Each structure stands twice: as structure tokens, then as C-alpha cells.
Amino acid sequence: MKISKNIILFFFTSSFSLALLAQGTLTNPIPPAVQTFLNRDTLGKTLISSIAINGNKKTKDYLIRREMKFKEGDSIKNTLLPGLIAESRKLIYNTTLFTEAEVIPAVDSAGLSISIIVKEKWYLFPTPQFKLVDRNFNEWIKRHNGDLNRVIYGLKFAHYNFSGRGDPLRIYLLTGYAQNASFSYSAPRRKTGLTEGFAVSASFTKNREISFRTNFNNQILFYSGKGFIRESISAGAAYFIRKGFYRSHSFGVGYVFINLDDSVIIKTGTDYFNSNVSSKGFTDLSYSFRHINVDNVNYPLKGNFYGVSVFKRGLGFTGGINLLEVNGAISNFHPHGKNWYSNLQLIGKIKAPFNLAYINRRALGFGDFYLRGLENYVIDGVAAAVAKYTLKKKLFSFDIPVPFNIRTIPKIPVAFFAKTFADAGISYIPSRFNTMLNNQLLYTAGFGLDVLTLYDINIRFEYSFNQLGQNGLFLHAKGGF
């Protein structure tokens, strides 16, 4: 009872903790002269006489025009124009290709001329890589004392706008505790009308250890042999459809082949593949639908998101590697005025059959599907759900000038927020796989410090409390690309 009271106390009082956020300018006010022009005849229409685009050295003009809610020659009701201009600016910025985007109207003899001014990001990143083998920074420090032998290093080449159509190309060459060579290319706006696209990828990986079980205390058990004990080869392709502005569909197909050292089955049992084989090839099929209408896709403060995805592994329906998984998510981001914001996020998934191979049981504790305050735990499951609530307050913002003349980085935006949060969730699993945290309501709360800076790089410091009576500081990082 004592820890529950502390959680409630912190949830309601920690709104005054400091948080740091840097975010691109998202406002695009209508110039007073244009507003006066529109107010002269609120029942009338205005002609869009011209649209000019400036600042795009790499990005194709037609990609930017595709995000506009109007085109040259349109006659639009005066009452609708301010909203359409603001929406167009938001859609251009949310391509994630620009650090700044402005849509500026001006009165001319024919109606309104539109000037679009963008500042492109730096798209080419040949960078050294230093990656952790473990799920997150906290696990690396707590369980392995920051052991530098448990890192992967090498080179990443990425071009996030390869042909000027918002098409990212990535090549990884990594070695160390694991080895990986991978390639991926995505062209989501390839066809005429920019409503369809595709992606291709291939990867080869070698691992010195594998996770083979989650113990009762919700910690992953690892097995490591002599040298590399797991090899995998994968290849995949995807097809994208985005007919409107906010909704998109994707269809994917892939093939994966995994080969384990014979000692893995001998030492760990047959749970990994749900069979006594040491190698397995299988097909993955997927479909996803997403609706995104937010002010900033990397750190939203206003708008909503919802989506559903279906994933099928294997061509059968029971036994072995076979899996059918359905995921759903919905998020609402709401401004309350006076720089107060809140967001509510609901995420859920269900899998079948319930007798799954170990590699198909992941639920809470991977990716963004976790409770803040339970990052140190892995909770497998065949059905799981999480609810997250966050309240934040913007304190102030500023820009740091860059002393060098760099066109793609003219300044570094910084703003300050305060936030507090509370999460709840549950993960169900059949009794023979049950652990300390399965099949019960879980809840956490806390407060933190968010850092969102150049290119929407988001670093979050969160001090959390959980129902086990534990508390601590957790670090999370996420990039805008």
C-alpha cells in the first residue's frame, strides 16, 4: 500500500519536474494583409494563382506539391484557406525531409500566390556504429556492467533521400559480439501520382549468443557456446499504398533461414523452434494500415494516430514455427491551452496458436511496447495490452545559432517541457509459461526530462516507480530518421 500511495503522489505532483525539448517551428500564421483580404468576402472564393517552391536542392518539386491540400488554379472558399494552408505546411514537414517548412500566401492581382520555403536536412550519413547487444542501455549497465565486449561496431551508410523522392537507402557492415551485413532500400512514392511504392531488403547475421527462455523473474536467459552459434539469412519486399494524405497501407513478404549450432538444442531443449530441429526456414507475410494526422510525426503534441497490422509466420496454423499475430494501436494528442498538453496511447496484440515457439512469444519489454518503470523486465505473452497517459507543460524555447555557415543546419532549436506519466498493462500467457509478472494488472508512474533537438532527436530521462516497490532513472533515445 505504501508504494501505491507514492505512485499516486508522484503522478499528481511531478508536473513541475523539468524536461527539455527541441522542436521545429510548427506554426504558420496567415499574414495580416492576407487575412484582411480573405475577410472582405467570407462567403466568396479565392483563386490560387501560383505556387513557387524554394530551398529544395535535392527533393523533387512534385513530391512537395503532392503534400499540398490545393494546387494551382483551384478556387477555394475564403473561410477554408487558412486551415488548408496550415495543413499543407504540416504535411510537408511530416515528410521528415526538412528541418523547416513554411507555406506563405500573398495577395496578387489574380488572387493568392503561394510561396513554399523549405530547409532540407543533411541526408547522407556514412557514420561509425556502436550498438548494444542488449535490449536497452539500462539492461547493459545493470546485468553486464557496461561490458564493452558486448557491443557491435562497424560502419553504417545511409542516404535518406537517395533520388530526391524521400527514398532511404541503408547499408550496414557490423562486427564485434555479433556480425551483420544488411541492405535496404525503400521508395514509398515511386509511381505516377506518388500514391504507390516498394521496399526491398536483405540481411546476413551471425550471433555468439541467443536468448532461449524467460525465467520466472522475467529475465532473459542466454546461451553462448564457442564462437558463433546462430546464423540467419533473410530477404524481403514490401508494397505501399497511400492514396490520400493521412492513410497508408503496406503489404510485405519475406523469407528467413536460421541455423543453430547443434549444441543449442542439446543444452537448451526444443523450445526455440518448438521442434527438435537445429535449422529452420520460414516465410513471413504482413499487412498494416495506419492513419496519421499529427503536427509532428516524431514528437506529436496535437492530432491522432490509429493503426492495425496482421503478421503471419509459416504456412501452417499449428505447431512448430507457425504464428498468426494481430496488433492494434490508437493515440490521441491533445493541447489544453496555456502550453499544456496530454496524450493517451492504447496498444494491444493477440497471437495464435497459444502453444508458440519461444522466438514468437515476445510481448512487453521490446521496442516501444513496454511500461515506463518496468524496462528491466521482459514479459512474454500470447495476448497483451498497454495504456499510457502523459501530461506535459511547455516552459520556454530558444534557438542556438551555429557559428559555421552550414546550409542544412542554420540553427539548433531547443524548448523546455515538464511531464508526468502513468502506465498500466497486462500480458497473458498459458500457465506452463507463467512468470512473476504474467497474468496480472501491472502499473507504473513517474516524471521525466525529454530532450528533442536537431533533426527531432529525442532523448528522454524518466524517473519511474512500479508496483514492485522499485524506482529508478531510465534513459531512452530515438532519432528523427
Explain the overall architecture.
The chain has 481 residues and is mainly beta. It is built from six helices and 23 strands. The strands form three sheets. It has a 17-stranded antiparallel β-sheet that branches. A four-stranded mixed β-sheet has the order 3-2-5-4. The radius of gyration is 25 Å and the shape is globular. The N terminus is likely disordered.
Brief write-up:
This protein is mostly beta strands and 481 residues long. Helices cover 11% and strands 50% of the residues. The N terminus is likely disordered.
SSE order:
HEHEHEHEEEHEEEEEEEEHEEEEEEEEE
Over all CA atoms, what is the radius of gyration? 25 Å
* N-C termini distance: 43 Å
Strand content: over 45%
In which range does the helix fraction lie? 10-25%
Shape: globular
Unreliable runs, pLDDT <50, ≥5 residues?
1-26
Number of helices: 6
**Taking all residues together, what is the mean pLDDT?**
89
Compute the number of strand runs: 23
Main beta sheet: 17 strands, antiparallel
Decide which structural class fits the backbone. mainly beta
Question: Topology, please?
Answer:
Layout: H1 2-13, E1 19-21, H2 32-39, E2 45-54, H3 61-66, E3 75-77, H4 81-93, E4 98-107, E5 112-120, E6 124-132, H5 137-144, E7 151-159, E8 169-176, E9 178-187, E10 196-207, E11 209-214, E12 220-224, E13 230-241, E14 247-260, H6 262-268, E15 279-294, E16 303-313, E17 323-337, E18 340-352, E19 383-401, E20 411-428, E21 442-453, E22 457-466, E23 471-478
Parallel strand pairs: 2-5
Antiparallel strand pairs: 1-20, 2-3, 4-5, 6-7, 7-8, 8-9, 9-10, 10-13, 11-12, 13-14, 14-15, 15-16, 16-17, 17-18, 18-19, 19-20, 20-21, 21-22, 22-23
